Cyanobacterial aminoacyl-tRNA synthetase CAAD domain-containing protein (Carya illinoinensis), 166 residues
Amino acid sequence: MAAAPAYATAYSNTAVLVPRLHTTKPTVRCSALPYLPPRSSSTAFTASTKHFSEPRRSSLLQVRASSSEDTSLDTGELFTGLKEKWDAVENKSTVLLYGGGAIVAVWLSAVVVGAVNSVPLLPKIMELVGLGYTGWFVYRYLLFKSSRKELATDIEELKKKIAGTE
C-alpha cells in the first residue's frame, strides 16, 4: 500500500479529499476528527511518518496515565457518608430551601445570559466592559506592591466578616 499523500494526512475540520485505489474520483469525507491513514503494516506506518517533522511525529504518540493507588469510588461508602451528613443537619428545611433557591438562581442566570446573547451588539459591549474592568482591577490592585498588600488586607477583613470572628 502506498503512503498517503501529505494533503490527506493534514489536520482539518473540513472536508478531506482521499483518493481511492480502484477509482479515479477522489472521495470526500467530512469529519471533525483528522484523517489518519490505515495501519496495514509497520513499514507503511514508518514510511508515512517520514513526511512529518519532529514535533508533528510526537503528536502521533499516545500517552496513558496510570496510578498505583486505587482511585475507584465506592458508591456504598459515598451514600453512607452523605446519609450521615444529612442526619447531622438540624434544620433540613432551611438546607432544602437554600438548595432550591440556588438551583432557581442558576436557571434564572442562564435565561438572562441567553437573552443578552440574543441581542445583536450587547455581547460585544459586555466583553468590552469586562476587559475594561479587568484592566482597571489589575492597575488598581495587582500592579504595585502596596496595592497588593491593601487587597490582601481587604480579603482578610472580608473573610473575618463572613466567618463572624470580627
About this structure: Residues 89-118 form one domain. The beta strands are 16-19, 26-29. The mean pLDDT is 75. The first helix runs from residue 6 to 9.
